[in-house]
Amino acid sequence: MHLLRIKILLLLTIGTSILFSCQNTEPTQKELTTKKEKTTLKDAYEEHFLIGTTLSKQHINQEIPKAAALIPREFNAITAENMMKWMNIHPAKDSFDFSMSDKFVALGQQQEMFMVGHTLVWHSQLADYMNEMTDKEALEAHLKNHIETIVGRYKGKIDGWDVVNEALNEDGTLRESIFLKVLGEEYLEKIFRWAAAADPSAELYYNDYNIEQPAKRKGCIEMIKKLQAKGVKIDGVGIQGHWSLLGASIKDIEDSILEFAALGLKVDFTELDITVLPNPWDLKGAEVSQNFEGSPFMNPYPEGLPDSVQVKLANRYQSLFELFVKHKDKINRVTFWGVHDGHSWLNNWPIKDRTNYPLLFDREFNPKPAYFEVLKIGQAIDPPVN
Ligand code: 9MR
Prior knowledge:
- The protein is α/β, with parallel strands linked by helices.
- It has helices at residues 2-23, 29-35, 41-44, 57-60, 65-74, 86-89, 99-110, 136-153, 178-183, 186-198, 214-229, 250-261, 307-326, 369-381, and strands at residues 50-55, 77-80, 114-122, 160-165, 203-208, 236-239, 242-244, 266-275, 331-336.
- α13 (307-326) runs parallel beside α14.
- The protein starts with a helix and ends in a 5-residue tail after the last helix.
- Ligand 9MR binds at residues 81-82, 85, 125, 165, 240, 271, 345.
């Protein structure tokens, strides 16, 4: 009994000294990184989610020195903006053009970026010859070859694929694309299976806009559940996030994060930007087809963004990133759709030649107040330890 007590005491002493010596060891790598002040977006969020941007041809060719410096400093994920779209990568029935996508991948590897391939199957930006593909067997074989060739070429390099983009209507039903019309609903299951077989290690996503809106979200969830029930591998959902100062509402975005995550999916915000310009759809009685081009009313800030709107933009980004941080365990990546305001598609849509300000960097590549708001929120998650 006495001997047993001594043994226990001895064990306790050894245990305590091991614990004590552990406490006195050098700081762990995590502690060291949190001690550094995090002064860029990718560093501020690095332990929580990726911060991405989309790259156009100019960026890949490193034609703009300021952009070439800014991209690897602030971002750790890149998405191909246009060069992997069907009309560019598969322009003729029997030939692919990998010139730009190869450069994209080489740059991503060199800069150790998380790379997203955008997009394998989309009803838009198809090559013209696709309009003639009305035979089911021929289209299916062509689609299979398209996916196997592209995903296979970048196997182990591209980290995630937007396998299908924008397959849903606003009411949540499936869009009448050439794929749905000719191949039927099963095309969805097939394309995910072909992509998974071509690179089993790549993440596979469904990507769409407005899927934070209740009706479309419901349709999206039903579509994904059907795929999951058939054992199809789908890793994540991409909520594009083309929003304005007023919407989508934080509630709809939060509900979406929770509902998509409940399906076991990673949630990504894949094309984030916030328009600050009036939208023809919001004008009572406005016809989208109406010509607003050249109207000063529709292009109110050609010379610069007034401070009052700059503040609204910063506040909007603040609310969004506070929400993203709240659900950081469910979010994998937040990608901005553009590097700086001058690069955004929103300067030309839905009205051409306007001056929009949707991103975090201005036309001179300087950080805007919205940038500092987003940075501050990231820095506050893991404040420096003194
Ligand atoms: O930003 C892209 C723009 O340069 C292209 O002209 C346009 C058409 O291919 O596509 C834009 O990106 C879209 C993305 O591929 C899918 N979601 C909506 C994006 C904005 O239109």
